[in-house]
Amino acid sequence: MPNSAGKRFKPTKYIPVSTAATLLVGSTTLFFVFTCPWLAKVISPAVPFYNGLVFLFVLANFSMATFMDPGVYPRANEDEDKDDDFRAPLYKNVEIKGIQVRMKWCATCHFYRPPRCSHCSVCDNCVEDFDHHCPWVNNCIGRRNYRYFFLFLLSLSAHMVGVFSFGLIFVLHHREMLGALHTTVTLVVMCVAGLFFIPVMGLTGFHMVLVARGRTTNEQVTGKFRGGVNPFTKGCCGNVEYVLCSPLAPSPVVILLCFLCRYVLDPKKKPHIKIQPPFIRPDTSERHITIKVSDNGIHGTIIHSKSKCSLDGLDGKEMQPPLPPKADKYSQLKAPQTSSEESSLSGRTHPSTPAMYRYRPSFGTMPKVHYHTAEEKIIMSEDRKTSAILEEGVRGHDYRSEPNLDLPEYANAPLHRTFQSSPFQLDSDPVASRTLSLKQGPCRLEKGQLQALGPQTAASTSYKGAFSPNTLSNRNGSLSYDSLLNPSISPAGANECRAHRGMPPMGFHSPYLPNKMCHIRETEIHRQQAAPAYSPVVIPRGMGRQSPHPRDRDSSPVRYDNLSQTIMASIQERKELEEREKRKMMHGRSQTSIYTPDSAAFDGGYGLPTNACYPEGPRGSFSRGPTPPTYGGSRDNLMGLGVMSYGQRTPVQRYAGSTLGRAPRTSSTSLHTDHSSTNSSQNRTPGPEGPYCSPVHQPHSPAMPRSPSYSHQKLSYINTHEKTESPRLGGQREAVKVNGQMDCHMSTQNASLSPGRHSNVKKVTGVGGTTYEISV
Amino acid sequence: MAETHSLQDLRHQAAVAAKVFIQRDYTNGTLCQFQTKFPSELETKIDKQQFEETMRTLNNLYAEAEKLGSQSYVEGCLACLTAYTIFLCIETHYEKVLKKIAKYIQEQNDKVYAPRGLLLTDPLERGLRVIEITIFEDRSLTQ
């Protein structure tokens, strides 16, 4: 036997098929030669004719079953599986007629096996509608050749019955001449037929039952639908009809060969498609318009449809922070959500911890853009009109950075949809926020992030789908969350911040905090002029800001957030207490350092200097972690963290979220990575943290002036939150935070504040640069 | 020949930026249907309606290919009677529809997708598992 370098020739696998073929053909030939002449003469010539037909049918089906492609799936291209390979979960669920069916990742073929598909180890291929590997035909039985296999069994059974009975007749008529050749041969044929009759009939009966039930041998043997419902059945008649009468599905391999032959023979037939830039781009102007409508009021005008390019100018000019409006937009835009978004979202996002979820919502409403925002958008807009998309992508990042919290937000789905429909909305926000951040300086990180993100726009776009809904969900989450936690909780805080405009973002606490903080801050600043047109949900909260809301919120039923409501509430309370204590302690100091939720300095700013520097590590790890955050974990984290540094809420949350792990691969991973990178970059930019790791930015100072007006509001807000998120805002923040008192200590108080905090708390940088304060 | 450029040659004119894979939609069982949701990567490239229209048409064509109608019955009987030798002579209904699909994809590529820097790949090449959409780099933007 020649052994080629490639596949080795295994003769043993051909033994069963050879045996079967030999027996079949040999026996039948003998029957026709020795028995049929007498039968034709004595009984009727129709006998051999009938037997001949049946035998022909058996042979045809046998050949088809042996040589026909059962429905082999070609191996997946590298491009297809690159996202899935490393971080792909082993199973993927899909719903078929209401029943959850699991699709397993095939490591050999590099794709998720479609339902009913299985990998044949003998053939080393994934086969569609895999039934079994039949050694007698030396082939897999799958979708394309099951009919032939079944008909082969039926016809073989009929043939065996016929041969045996006619042979019996012959033998009975030649009892006295048993020693004669003809009789002996007939007897031998009868023995062979009789010997294989039981197994073949048994198998035929088995497959008749399978066909009637609409199952494959693989499913029957592995007990997949034992006691359950088979989603693939079409009823008995439908199943039989499907097996026997369904059109012959062509083999992809054969088709490809045909195509190749055709094109090789006649190259002119080959379709030629010219793909040359410049390419047409969809008109996004309408979308922009919708964005404008949005609500924040602050940036109503920011989003200009055509001028994504105008975003370029954002750097120079002041853009209203698009933050809050987004929330409104979402509520306004109840466009039917694209399934893609949903799915992308669901696909990519991972179940978020409730805690994270809560926090996130506040950010969700805000334009995610924090990091990527403006800059990213600006870049994007140049190329595409759909800056909105970018935004989404950006959002995605935001979203991603936090452990995905959106999953549970089914309720938010509609929001997601709306979001999707108006991608531009996002654009505006990010851009707006970006400009703000740029101006303020503190958000240097953002810039860096943006740039980093820039190249990823493509990637971000992919996330967009995932994110936008998330953002929405965040919003929703925040809403719900807010209701739970109330102002004290960051989500509420976030909303309130917006509402109050000057409120320090501290309350956000959401994982997006860094970004959001920036946005919030910026928004706040801008907001001063513009009346926040937040969604009604937000506004009321904002008003309440303080404790009353949290209480109210706690009682409000939250969809997903409900779970941790009580937890959040307790955290809130604890935080408030702590904050109060701290405020008293640090009243004179620049508390803002701790609290200023400078988005850019998010990482560094909040926590202790050590933390600022350190978050990077954990953050990065968190964000990149492929395991999805578990709810329980997040809550726990929150609990712990909440106690510590309320102000840090967002950071805490982020931490919590991140610890939970990230959803496996794909979108989330990339997003997280982006996020982490942005966060990290944020961290790196010393900016606001100033006191902690790096010199404090005071870039916010210019923005600060406004803060006083907000600070009051914020302060009240802060009380609940206690988050002092980023001291970046400088004095503004300081005032805001901590104690709810309207101290508007500009700038540098951060440093003073933080040290005080250090004594009590340890700042940890979480995902997205959120700094968490952990009381030690 | 200026007008006959092979796909390969044309591809050289624009670099591949990304690939989007439209997966199968199994909500109705193992019928060959593809998801119609609009992937986010294409948001900047093509209109959602256009894309969904393409996908819906493809789904309808595949449903037509797999339909258990009179034509499939006749083909099945003939095949049995002729010991499947008829497959050597005639084209089955499924194959005919597959050709129709290939033509449709070609036409869509020419009219809709190529001008936008996209290319649809016939799912048959992937075993009817995914529709691969290749996104080409828009060099005009980078210039």
TrEMBL record, chain A:
PANTHER family: ANKYRIN REPEAT AND LEM DOMAIN-CONTAINING PROTEIN 2 (PTHR12349), PALMITOYLTRANSFERASE ZDHHC8 (PTHR12349:SF1). Residues 666-681 have a biased composition (Low complexity). It is a multi-pass membrane protein. The DHHC domain is required for palmitoyltransferase activity. Residues 334-352 have a biased composition (Polar residues). It holds the Pfam family DHHC. Keywords: Acyltransferase, Golgi apparatus, Lipoprotein, Membrane, Mitochondrion, Palmitate, Transferase, Transmembrane, Transmembrane helix. It comes from Oryzias sinensis. Its EC number is 2.3.1.225. One of its GO terms (molecular function) is protein-cysteine S-palmitoyltransferase activity. It is found in: Golgi apparatus membrane; Mitochondrion membrane. Residues 311-360, 538-559, 578-597, 659-711 are annotated as: Disordered. The chain crosses the membrane at residues 20-40, 47-68, 148-172, 184-210, 248-265. Belongs to the DHHC palmitoyltransferase family. ERF2/ZDHHC9 subfamily. The keyword Translocase does not apply. It comes from the Eukaryota. It catalyses: L-cysteinyl-[protein] + hexadecanoyl-CoA = S-hexadecanoyl-L-cysteinyl-[protein] + CoA. InterPro entries: Palmitoyltrfase_DHHC (IPR001594). This is Palmitoyltransferase. It is an enzyme of class 2 (transferase). Residues 102-222 form the Palmitoyltransferase DHHC domain. GO terms for cellular component: Golgi membrane; mitochondrial membrane.
TrEMBL record, chain B:
Signal peptide: none annotated. It is a lipid-anchor. It is found in: Golgi apparatus membrane. GO terms for biological process: Golgi to plasma membrane protein transport; protein targeting to membrane. It comes from the Eukaryota. Residues 20-132 form the Golgin subfamily A member 7/ERF4 domain. InterPro entries: Golgin_A_7/ERF4, Ras_palmitoyltransferase. Keywords: Golgi apparatus, Lipoprotein, Membrane, Palmitate. GO terms for cellular component: Golgi membrane; Golgi stack; palmitoyltransferase complex. May be involved in protein transport from Golgi to cell surface. The ZDHHC9-GOLGA7 complex is a palmitoyltransferase specific for HRAS and NRAS. PANTHER family: GOLGI AUTOANTIGEN, GOLGIN SUBFAMILY A, 7, GOLGIN SUBFAMILY A MEMBER 7. Belongs to the ERF4 family. This is Golgin subfamily A member 7. It comes from Oryzias sinensis (Chinese medaka). The lineage of its organism: Eukaryota, Metazoa, Chordata, Craniata, Vertebrata.
